[in-house]
Amino acid sequence: MTRESRHPGHSQPQMSGAVRRVMISDRQKDYEQCLKWVKPSFLWMMYRCGWGEKTDQETVLAVEIGREGFDWALGRACLSHYDPDEHGDREAWRRELKGAPARVQWDPERDLLLRALPYRSLQLGLAGEASRRYADEWTVSVTDVTPLAHEVRARVRSGDLAGAAALLPRERPYPAPGGTPGLGRVSRGTCSNA
Q1: Nearest-CA neighbor of 146 among 21, 6, 32, 28?
Q2: For residue 130, what is the enclosing H or E element?
Q3: Is the dihedral of CA 5, 11, 15, 21 positive or negative?
Q4: Furthest CA-CA distance within the chain
């Protein structure tokens, strides 16, 4: 899930008004400087955007991108935080981060009540070339899932957790390519950034 995207090949008449508004406003942003965060987990996105109720996060979009582009970004990413197991020293990490078109962070996955779970979900930040390619090449589809977010939230608030769970988008583990920053530490359960 991600809130921001633009794909010029999309047919404007086929998009909902909310999707059209976000995509038109994104065209005015500078993709060289603006970091886009791809959040593949629906519930982590709900935690981040408060079920689409936080200010300036009222529209929730599901952006499908091709695996080739996602793997390209992972292969060129740097951890968003310094990790002595992955970087020789802080200065080496800073240099790598500055030159990387993508950054990775691993945050606790969330349950239906948005409580942290004992395993992590990847968040992928895109800048420069990665952000441009995401917007212009990798995007397959954009779907406004704001009504779904509100319906799941309503069921959670009413205590219907089974009904809310039944509405969740199907998600499955993504086989991240070798060399994905932080993957070894997350796999061992030793990731410390929260």
Answers
A1: 21
A2: helix 128-133
A3: positive
A4: 51
Q: Cα–Cα distance between 81 and 93 in angstroms, integer? A: 8
> How many Cα atoms are found within 13 Å in the side-chain-facing hemisphere of 134?
31
Mean pLDDT of 56-69: 92
From first CA to last CA, the distance across the chain in angstroms is 20
Contacts of 27 (CB under 8 A, 6+ apart): 6
Q: Determine the Cα–Cα distance for residues 131 and 137; give it in Å rounded to an integer.
A: 10
Question: pTM of the predicted model, to two decimals?
Answer: 0.76
Distance CA 21, CA 30 (A): 17
Q: Each residue of 44-58: pLDDT tens digit? A: 999 999 999 999 899
- Contacts by 30-35, CB closer than 8 A, 24 or more apart: 31/128, 31/131, 31/132, 31/135, 32/127, 32/128, 32/131, 32/132, 33/127, 34/127, 34/131, 35/103, 35/125, 35/126, 35/127, 35/131
Structure-token pair, residue 55: 């200010």
125: which strand partners? 37, 103
Tokens of 144: 């406004």
Q: To 5 degrees, how large is the angle CA 23–CA 27–CA 30?
A: 130
